[in-house]
Design a protein that fits this description.
Elements: H1 6-9, H2 20-40, E1 49-55, E2 64-70, H3 108-128, H4 139-166, H5 168-178, H6 202-223, H7 229-267, H8 280-296, H9 304-311, E3 333-340, E4 343-350, H10 355-380, E5 405-406, E6 412-413, H11 415-425, H12 429-438, E7 469-470
Antiparallel strand pairs: 1-2, 1-7, 3-4, 5-6
Helix pairs in contact: 2-4, 3-4, 3-5, 4-5, 4-7, 6-7, 6-8, 6-10, 7-10
The structure holds benzoyl coenzyme A and fe (iii) ion (FE) (2 copies).
Length: 472
């Protein structure tokens, strides 16, 4: 990539121009990233101009610019939130010490592992979504997909920056490995379960950006509390972008719900599939799936890893600094629901080893608020139906519930009962085939597929029928 001025090419506020070693590492990594983007990023549309937001600074006002870009030309920048002068570690064994500007030697391995796990999810999601452009329900949605994709790409850059700048040679090796694992690959899968699932259709995409990107919000928020200051500042800035991803998910599902309700009323039927809509029970099964695989991302209810991350000052609680307790949690307890023989019981557990569950609780409450907003749409249409989050024990692969079969309403059930009912609880092959059959691309400006309502407004004050992607 000779001839590229990287300090110009990579918008940054990390003094890239003055850091020769880091600049060299990134110059070596960038062509490999672009190769990965061409092979595993959005399938098609790489030469089209897309109306995208690009991060150009970290100011509360005007951190982003909007304009037409071809995706491979996107300026994936490196931005850390402004330093907080005199910032102290607010929890764990180092509480009250100055935040670390460098990696503490004794925590190097653990910290690298956390950063790699976070970093791995970013390209994974781009891989999962790579075929969706071909079946977009509108040009507006196509642009939102690509916005999410380039920003997940930037989140990968954010983690690679930390690895290259602070972890020497092993960091650079990890940066390479992040481009080598592949979502769903049997030999070199992505690290976390949900990131090896398929995102084959737009209903799955909107569910993913609602449920799985929201895990991102909670994990990033806990890492934003980190005593390792560069990680904290990186995550704080990533959270500003994350909000848009969850907006895409929430409004996407909401618009499908709205369209379904319109069809139900217009045709006086619950079975809107004959009229090109997605019926509410199918939506419920998709919720059940995406919520449960996203719950797994929080790890086991009882986790010594989580206790260690906290005590070491590497990963805090959601809104740690707003909490009024000793921030050590040595003597505290926390109520945890877990499998107890053939029933589900809530027990007081040591707060330190329950930190994954506490974060999961914050996440569940946030998801429930979104579901309530979808239910408002149904209610306003005068339809008697309620979408629900399934019980946290339902369809789990990680933690104590992984050993049992739990129904969406939270009963431990027999294998026989599971076998008799799981088709009502999780998307069936038939559901997936039906949803797939609706995925016919709509690329005329201002037009929308039969199964989704238009958004309430456009992006960045532009009209809904704006040319969000130049397809000519
Ligand atoms: N799948 O003590 P345990 C995002 C492993 S999403 C596979 O229960 P721990 C985004 C675990 O690694 C946010 N393996 O859990 C969203 C451990 O393995 P080792 C991503 C799993 O360690 C959308 C073992 O099981 N960020 O940004 O306390 C689009 C026992 O672990 C899973 C992070 O996750 C699983 N689901 O917590 C784009 C933050 N769960 O070490 C992006 C960084 C657990 O024994 N990561 N295991 O080999 C972490 O904080 C922790 O690694 C976890 C797990 C919360 C994930
Ligand atoms: Fe991300
Ligand atoms: Fe995201």
């Amino acid at each position: 990539m000779a001839g590229i001025d990287y300090t110009e090419r990579i918008p940054n506020n990390v003094g890239l121009a003055e850091n020769r070693r880091l600049l060299r590492a990134l110059e070596e990594w960038h062509p490999k990233f672009l190769e990965w983007w061409q092979d595993m990023g959005p399938n098609g549309f790489q030469a089209n101009e897309v109306y995208l937001r690009t991060a150009v600074s970290v100011g509360a006002q005007g951190w982003a610019q909007f304009g037409y870009v071809q995706m491979p030309e996107y300026r994936w920048g490196i931005f850390l939130a402004e330093p907080e002068p005199g910032r102290q570690i607010s929890f764990g064994a180092h509480k009250g010490s100055a935040a670390w500007p460098e990696v503490p030697g004794e925590y190097r391995g653990v910290l690298r592992r956390l950063i790699v796990t976070q970093g791995d999810t970013e390209p994974a999601s781009v891989e999962q979504q790579r075929h969706l452009g071909r079946t977009c329900p509108s040009v507006y949605d196509l642009r939102n997909l690509f916005q999410v994709n380039v920003e997940e790409g930037r989140h990968l850059w954010a983690m690679v920056y930390l690895l290259d700048a602070y972890f020497g040679r092993d960091g650079r090796e990890e940066s390479e490995a992040l481009l080598q694992r592949r979502s769903g690959d049997a030999d070199k899968p992505r690290i976390l379960g949900a990131f090896n699932e398929k995102t084959p259709d737009w209903l799955s995409f909107f569910m993913f950006s609602f449920f799985t990107d929201r895990d991102g919000k909670y994990q990033l928020a806990s890492l934003a509390e980190s005593g390792f200051d560069p990680l904290s500042r990186t995550c704080r800035f990533m959270l500003t972008e994350e909000a848009h991803h969850m907006f895409v998910g929430e409004t996407g599902v909401g618009r499908i719900v709205q369209r379904t309700c319109e069809l139900m009323r217009e045709h006086r039927t619950d079975d809107v599939s004959r009229h090109g809509g997605i019926d509410l029970p199918t939506m419920q099964r998709y919720i059940n799936f995406h919520f449960s695989v996203s719950l797994d991302l929080f790890g086991s209810e009882i986790s010594t890893n989580a206790a260690n991350f906290y005590t070491m000052g590497l990963k805090g609680r959601f809104e740690e600094t707003k909490k009024q307790d000793d921030h050590l949690l040595k003597d505290a307890s926390y109520p945890v629901a877990a499998l107890d023989a053939d029933r589900i019981a809530v027990r007081e557990e040591p707060a330190l080893t329950s930190l994954n569950e506490r974060l999961r609780d914050d996440y569940v409450a946030d998801c429930a608020r979104g579901v309530a907003r979808w239910n408002e749409v149904i209610k306003r249409a005068g339809i008697d139906f309620e979408l629900k989050l399934p019980h946290r024990g339902f369809h789990r692969a990680i933690g104590s519930f992984a050993e049992a079969k739990v129904s969406p309403d939270g009963r431990v059930v027999s294998e026989a009962e599971w076998d008799a009912h799981h088709r009502e609880w999780l998307p069936t092959d038939q559901d997936r085939a039906f949803v797939q059959s609706l995925m016919q691309p709509v690329t005329e400006r201002g037009k929308f597929a039969s199964w989704i309502a238009p958004p309430a407004r456009g992006i960045n004050g532009q009209p809904i029928d704006f040319e969000y992607v130049r397809l000519a």
